[in-house]
Amino acid sequence: MADRPDAAQPVDAELLASLSSMELRARAMVEGYYSGHHRSRYRGASVEFADHRPYSHGDELRHLDWRLYGRSDRFFVKQYEAETNLTVHLLLDASGSMGYPERGVTKLACATYLAAGLAYLAWRQRDAVGLTVFDTGPREQLPPRSRRGHLQQVFDALEGAAAGGETGIADVLGDVGASMRRRGLIVLLSDLLDEPGEVLRALGLLRSRGHDLIVMQVLDRREMDLGLHGPVVVVDLETNERLVTDADEIRGRYEAALRAHVERLRDGCAARGIDHQLFVTDRPLGPALVGYLARRRRRRG
């Protein structure tokens, strides 16, 4: 088995799963994507002056603009535009529902491949990348770093992520937001099979604090187009509850309900200035990720 996919071959989930390491999967995911120079609008200690703001107790006196004080008799602090690296926080949902399907490449596996590709791009751009693997709460956390050794730690954590437990997306978003000391890019990777109102509320709060957010919703084709017929036993992968039903009778209502769920999340994200991108596991993940990132880059100039 070759460890490097042919450049002409679509980078789909089955091919990615066949590669021997998460680093190879990451490289295959983003092959050919331009990791260019970016400019942060966050404030820092640089030589390029940006703006003034009123003095607040605790500000360093060396940043006071004494000339402006002489003209206005008021204290103002100089702010500077920093050529800083971005801080990227990857939030990976590893709850039980992400373990679907039981055979083949799961939603969780696909989400780890997407996360690995993003982590690799962040490292290439010298951005700091952190990872939180969660279900009802954080299960594993790696603080943002930009060192090569840290990238391997992220890959190892993604490789070891296992699905289990119930979902607590809103609570985890709140915990992560409270721990973040500076604004950054937050990427949520999840099937989002949770209460949409609570998820959107938590996302909106993070957005209001100045964070940039990307929501990557990962669903299996068999969830979207119910591929079952006749009497079936449906098992909740998070609670183990079982329901006996007839797939042919519920298909229309089920598919309509799932479409409405996805649309509510998509529209709710758009209303809050948050990117929402749906990834369906039967489509090549590499081109889907690179295509999305290219569109996002064009939109943002």
How are the SSEs placed, and which strands pair?
Layout: H1 13-18, H2 22-30, E1 49-54, H3 66-72, E2 76-80, E3 87-93, H4 107-124, E4 128-134, E5 138-145, H5 148-160, H6 169-179, E6 185-190, H7 196-208, E7 212-219, H8 221-224, E8 231-235, E9 242-246, H9 247-271, E10 275-280, H10 285-299
Parallel strand pairs: 3-4, 3-6, 6-7, 7-10
Antiparallel strand pairs: 1-2, 4-5, 8-9
Cα(first) to Cα(last) distance is 41 Å
Oligomerization category of the chains in this entry:
single chain
Radius of gyration, CA atoms, in whole angstroms: 22 Å
Provide mean pLDDT, rounded.
Answer: 84
CATH topology of the largest domain: Rossmann fold
Low-confidence stretches: 5-10, 34-48
Major sheet strand order: 5-4-3-6-7-10
Tally of individual helices? 10
Secondary structure tally: strands:
10
Give me the CATH superfamily of the largest domain. von Willebrand factor, type A domain
- Shape descriptor: elongated
CATH secondary-structure class of the largest domain: Alpha Beta
Name the helix and strand elements from N-terminus to C-terminus, one letter apiece. Answer: HHEHEEHEEHHEHEHEEHEH
Task: Characterise this structure.
By secondary structure, this protein is α/β, with parallel strands linked by helices. It folds into 2 domains: 19-34 and 85-299, Rossmann fold; 49-80, no CATH class. 40% of the residues lie in helices and 21% in strands. It has helices at residues 13-18, 22-30, 66-72, 107-124, 148-160, 169-179, 196-208, 221-224, 247-271, 285-299, and strands spanning 49-54, 76-80, 87-93, 128-134, 138-145, 185-190, 212-219, 231-235, 242-246, 275-280. The strands form 3 sheets. Strands 5-4-3-6-7-10 form a 6-stranded mixed sheet, sandwiched between helices. Mean pLDDT is 84; it is low at 5-10 and 34-48.
